[in-house]
Amino acid sequence: MAYSGPFQPGDRVQLTDAKRRHSTIILEQGGEFFTHKGGIKHDDIIGSHEGTVVTSAQGGQYLCFRHLMVDHVLSMPRGAAVIYPKDAAQILIEGDIFKGARVLEAGAGSGALSMALLRAVGETGHVYSWEIRDDHIGFARDNVEEYFGTIPDWWTLRLGDLNEVTPDDTDGPVDRIILDMVEPWDCLDTASKLLIPGGVLMTYVATVPQLMKTVEKLRELGCFTEPRSWETLLREWKVEGLAVRPEHRMNAHTAFLVWARRLADGTVAPRPQRRARK
Ligand SMILES: C[S@@+](CC[C@H](N)C(=O)[O-])C[C@H]1O[C@@H](n2cnc3c(N)ncnc32)[C@H](O)[C@@H]1O
Question: Which residues does the record give as S-adenosyl-L-methionine binding sites (predicted)?
Fold first, then answer.
């Protein structure tokens, strides 16, 4: 799949009309897309640059860009709620997902995070995605395949409970683990046995009780650093003439992120010092 350059057959292209309505097409030589303003010939788009305008048979004008990963994630079919792009961005940077990294995630859900991880680690890395539900794994597989145009060779997607995974299933310890599931605390002991010393673990949980249980379990296990917890609020702004202000609506809450690093076996981390109460 091409991410830039002139349009080629097979590209997923987003057409935007004057009312900012989007339609997505997959380019085929000789293909045609029918709009209420007549047909658009795919051959008029193939070979042109992104950001050009194509005109339909009855004069409708459509701006053409390739579908971005974020467009795909927000429009693809879902079995389970996806990790939102603002949180996936945090996971990629705070979770230190590097090119060549070996990353384990569970559950795969709809495959939104799988896509971001696969693209970040690249073909020299590997993503292992575990998913316990048969119906969800189908969404993950189809969505990833549709985005990349094929199933990446550096992806292992398995049906099963993360708690049954052993280091043999992941060809040894992994560099990073991301958990997005209702009860991550039940899988933290297993995760600790699969993560390399120094490896980063992140969990994504929606509610305060989940956050509390996750952090308490990480402390109890004793093989992780003191966890950090946060959420990210994203507020878009309207910028039109003098009307420069925050948008009225926002997705105020998606989830909390919890972050910790695996200690070397046998290490007891110094306890965080808290100021004594007067
Ligand atoms: C919210 S979804 C994950 C969404 C996914 N991160 C995405 O961005 O599309 C949570 C998934 O975790 C799966 N799950 C829950 N417990 C699990 C376990 N112990 N092992 C593997 N998958 C599990 C559920 O079946 C569900 O599909």
Answer: 110-113, 131, 136, 161, 180
